[in-house]
Amino acid sequence: MATVNGKDLNMEQPAVPPSSLIRRVSSRSIRNSISEDKENGVDNNTKGSFVSKYKKAPEAFKSFHINDVENELEVPGTPMTPRTSTTPGHENCTFHHDLELDHRPPTREALLPDMANSYRLLLTGLGEDPERQGLLKTPERAAKAMLFFTKGYDQSLEEVLNNAIFDEDTDEMVVVKDIEMFSMCEHHLVPFYGKVSIGYLPQGKILGLSKLARIVEIFSRRLQVQERLTKQIAIAVTQAVRPAGVAVVIEGVHMCMVMRGVQKINSKTVTSTMLGVFRDDPKTREEFLNLVHSK
């Protein structure tokens, strides 16, 4: 929402990086709001009161995503997954309209020969000899690497969540911070990387903690801009567990600013998306940000 300064599901890899810090904390802000209203003689049932909305009419927050978020998971600029008839190169595929036909969209591995040829042309265009020993297998290596960098195109939210949504009678804030993130800038096809922190306020359902890290992987492993990535992660969590609110903060380093252009090696970009209670209640938002920035 704001900008400052500016699986393959591989089960052998940890879903949550070791540096991640997982905290379940009391939503002090909600209780503080109640106590302050009492001290000031405010009727918590007053129409429009934050406390009355949250404690007396939670459906007001349950519905915040239904009208504004429900259909926005695939933000314009990022192709739908899995590949459909609207994916470039599949506009005329009759398979998408007749499931009895044998045709299927090509697997990612089937794309390797054409991608390798493209890299071979690129090397030639740079004045290199693709046939010399050091570059002989570089086109194939580069094609495989690019497919890995963008594997999120072939992952869906439902596949990654794998029903890891559990009923739990809790409304305490859940925060997972410092999830490592690697992505590719869609403007220059160079990497950007950083850390993602996610918080949400459950409403009877919680998400397996590792799934938050996997959601980050789905959307970061695509050609991206950081602003869109932040929003996509927040919307995905919203669709998964219907919380009272979701907050996402990403701090990233963009190699397109470090290696080229202005070459500002110490610059960082911070983006955030706040939905529901995190947007409407400053104290809840402040509590989350304090936890994210604490050591």
UniProtKB/TrEMBL annotation:
SUPFAM superfamilies: Tetrahydrobiopterin biosynthesis enzymes-like. Pfam families: GTP_cyclohydroI. Keywords: GTP-binding, Hydrolase, Nucleotide-binding, Tetrahydrobiopterin biosynthesis. InterPro entries: GTP-CH-I_C/QueF, GTP-CH-I_N, GTP_CycHdrlase_I, GTP_CycHdrlase_I_CS, GTP_CycHdrlase_I_dom. GO terms for cellular component: cytoplasm. The keyword Transport does not apply. The keyword Cell membrane does not apply. It is an enzyme of class 3 (hydrolase). Pathway: Cofactor biosynthesis; 7,8-dihydroneopterin triphosphate biosynthesis; 7,8-dihydroneopterin triphosphate from GTP: step 1/1. Residues 117-292 form the GTP cyclohydrolase I domain. Coiled coil: none annotated. It comes from the Eukaryota. GO terms for molecular function: GTP binding; GTP cyclohydrolase I activity; zinc ion binding. Belongs to the GTP cyclohydrolase I family. This is GTP cyclohydrolase 1.
